[in-house]
Structure formats: C-alpha cells, structure tokens
Amino acid sequence: MTTLITPWPLVDMVIWAVIIIVFFALAALILTWAERKIAGFMQDRLGPLAAGRYHGILQPVADALKLLQKEDVVPLRANPRLHLAAPALVTAGAISAMAVIPWWGIGPAGEQIGVVPADLNIGIFYFLAISSLGVIGILMAGWGSANKWSLLGAMRGAAQIVSYEIPVGIAALAALVYAQSLSTVDIVNSQAGNMFQWTLFKGFPFNFFGGAIFALGAIAEGNRLPFDMPESESELVAGFHTEYSGIRFAMFFLAEYGNLFVAGLIITVVYLGGWYAPFPFLDFIPGVVWTALKMTLVGVTIIAIRWALPRLRVDQLMALCWKYMIPLALVCLFGASLLALIDGPARTITGVVLFVVLIGAVALLGREDRRPAPAKEY
Amino acid sequence: MPTTTTQPVRRYFRNIAQAVGTTAAAFTTATWHIFTPGYAHQYPRQKAELPDRTRHRLHVVIEDCIGCLQCERACPVECIKINAVKAPKSVDLGKASSGNPINFWLASFTIDMAKCCYCGLCTDPCPTECIVMTPNYEYSSYEVTDQVFQFARMSPEEITEAQRLVEEDKKKQAEEKAKKAAAAAAAKAAEPKAEEPATGATAAGAQETGESGAKEPEGPPAKQGEE
Lengths: 378, 227
Description:
The complex is a heterodimer. By secondary structure, chain A is an all-alpha fold. Chain A has 13 helices and 2 strands.
C-alpha cells in the first residue's frame, strides 16, 4: 500500500521518519496556540495577541525559544538516567504511534495513492500498544525525580492509563468487527462511500456509543483534562514533570500535544472514515485534507472539553473506567458483533430494536422498590 | 425520610444519565462563549476611559506650595513628608498663584506613592490647591524607592544661603530686641504706672468671660451671652 518515494526502502523509512517527526512537532506547536486561543475565547478573553502580527501566531515559537534557553536542571537526589531518559521515551511513544496513521490510501477512482507511512497488517494493535509506551516514561519521570509529587502523579498516571487501555481496546474491537482487519488502511477502506458508511454509524447505535467510549479513553490516555491525573496542578504542583525544566519539559509538552494530535487522528481513522469525504460529491477535495479536517474537528472538540469541564477525582476516574466504561464497552462489542451478522437496512432497524429492548430490560430490572426502607441503625 | 430505596441498577443508569446530562450542559454553556465577544481590554494598546476625577498619582505644583503642612497632617498613611523652614520676614518669597503669601522655604517635599492609599484627603485642605491627584496610573518601577517622588529640594548652596539669611535675621532681631528692651527699660524708668488704670477697669468682665476675655479685655459684651 505504501508508495515508495525512492527505490530504496531503507532510505524511504528514514524520509518518512523525518517527515513524521517534523510534522508532529509542527502540529504540536499549532495545537498549543489553538489551545490557548480556544481557552481564551471560552473564558471571554482573546488569548495570546502580542507575538507575531496576527493573533499571536508566533506565540508557540516564542514559547519554544524560551524553553530551549532555560537551564536544564537535574535534582541532586534524582536518578539521572531515568530522569533524563523519561521525556525522550514519552515523546517517542507519541511519535511512533503516528507511523500507522493512513493519511490518504486510495483515491476516489480507486487508484492507490499511499500517503501512508507504514501499512502494518497489525496496525491498530501496534497503535494501541505503542501509544501506551508513554506510561513507562511517566513512571520513570516520577520515580527518577526523587520528588513526592512526581511519584504520586506517576503512580496515578500509570493506574489511569493502564485502566483506560481496556475500554479503548474493547471499543476498538467493536469497530474492527466491521473492518475485519487490523490494518488501519483496511479499516478506512471499509468505510468507503458516504458518511453513513463510517464506523460511527455502522451497527448503530452500538458503535456510536463505542466511539464515545473510544474518544473518552483516548482523552484519558493522553492525560488531558478532565482526566488529568498525572499532572493535576491543583494537587500535585505539576505531577510527574514537577522537576523538569528547559528542553526536557518542552519534550513533555510536545508529547502532550502530540498525543492530542494522534488521538484526533486515530479517532478519525477508526470512526470518522479517514480520508473519505462525508458525501461522494465532495471527492474532488484531496483525502489528506479530509483527514486533516476531521482531525482538527476532533482536536478542537477535545480542547473545548478540557476548558469546559472540571477535573475528576481519582476515585471518580477509576469508577468511570471500571464501573461504567468497561461494562458499556462490552455491551457495545456484543451488540456490534451481533449486528454484523445481518446485512442491509435491516441491520440498523435490528440495532435500534435491540437497543430499545436492552434499555427496557434494564428499566424493568431497575424499577423502583416500593417496600419501605429498612430503619437505619447508627 | 425516603420511604423507598433505589435499586442499584436504577441508580447505576441514573448516574450515567446525570453524568451525560450535566456534562453536555456544561460543555454547551462553555463552548457557546467561543462565539461571544470577549470582555478583556488589550491594555497597552487599548486604554480604558477613566471617569472624571479619578485618583491616581499625586502631583504638586510646587511654585504654589506655601508650606502649610496641611496635606501632611491630613494624610492617613503618612506618605507625604515636607520639611518646611520658616523664612524671616525680611525675605520675600513671593506669592502663590492664588494670592497667598509664601512664608516657608521647602527644604524637601516628597510623596511616597508606594504608601499612598489614593484617598485624596490631602487635596482637600490645601489652601492653594497645589496638590492634586492626576489620572496618570502608569508609574510602576523596578525599585520601591523609585516610588518616592521628590517635588522640592534645596541645593546645598541654597541651604547655606537660607542659613545665612536666618542667622542674619536672628542677629537683627536680637539687636532689635536688645534695642526694644533698652527702650522699654528707659520708658519704664520714665513713667512706671502708665497702663495700670486701663487694665484695672475691666477686671470684673474678664473674670466672667474666662480666657478669651482675659486676652481681649475690651471684647464685646455679646460674648457673655454665647457662653
């Protein structure tokens, strides 16, 4: 699927890697600016205005320059190896996940275009595995800093990210039932046609809720508010990166926004039809643009969620994952798998009926107990 | 007191519904503000229009200051420090623009704006209206000592000149006093009981009106009615 740029595959690999890294850094810079602008607008401010001529467009560049000039301090009691390696690992995890993102695999006429860095046959599996590499980096940062806040943040982060792997994985399985492949290119290909062929609307309504669970899990795995446990500024100073300054802090920052970017991309690929236009008459717009547009939409929504909602408590976070998202993801997987056996318009009708029946059963199960409450003993 | 208990299953789904509902409400409320105009002023570029008579940095038109110290006494935080020295009568320091004669040298006049509480009480008693609150609020500084504004300061030459004038005046006054004393002594020697009958005549009235009466023995009788 991947088109070779040069006749030599190894050189090709290096070129793709450079493109991805540059693009990743660029996207992270733009997203920091977007985040600050959106935060400003949502709080009835204007956000950065001074740097650059138009609306502080050069603010991220100024921030990056400032961070690069700062002293890189390693605390005296810190474990220097862990402390120095952690930011690199976190960033590497986020960048590596981009390798399997297909930007534009197949053109409108069915021709192969292949703006795909790597078309692995285990694409989505690779993505889920490599994107949780960041946990090790966070743990290393927390442990290596010799700081109580850092350690607490890292432990919370590890618990959170490992927990949220599960609903994300199950929701992704429910989507994969329709793609019948782990390859990201095949997943997008199975959503060809108009927007009602997207996974979000396949096996309706189960994959719809599956998509919501996947998106929530992706936010949680990217350590973004409202699931901001490892960093939790209000409780843990700055969480796992309390002791970092200068370029290493910049790398954590890069990874955070890179994760946002990657989350937007993977949601686009798995649920929103990747490079396909919502309607066939819009096919003249290149697929890369559609991928970028959908990514932007998801990214902006995630940013808006951050500035609209307060942070969850640790126990609420865990309860949300284990008590609510995992069971619901299992229901989604069950329903989606069942509906995959049916073809045509009967599928959606069956899906809605099945959903209503499930809700009805739940309502019957959970009807109010009219017996008087037992007297409380204190 | 609730008479029924809620089934756990029902509570579970009610929780989900509540979470989704409140989250959606918060999200729409907050996101709507993306499309509403902001309220923040872009300060250095766009300055807020201040109302009339806003009270910011103090200014003293030092040419009009007569050194009466009324502002210093009015200040509740003691941020005004004036060192005024009475000039001898022989020295003419001119008049303020309001017509009040200036009788003091201002050795120094400082206002510590870091202490100032912007109450404006100092501007009220000023007889020449030389101390005013201006609308200038942009005077932050890196050192807190830079917030002490100096409005008057005499140079060493001026001080020595003033000292010379004061000394001269003292000398002159001492001479005059000596002259007067000599004259008085001479006069006393000449007619020792010149004023006695006059004071003795109103002695009864002075007792009734008290101190003020004692100072002005020929005061009008209306004063008795006031007391």
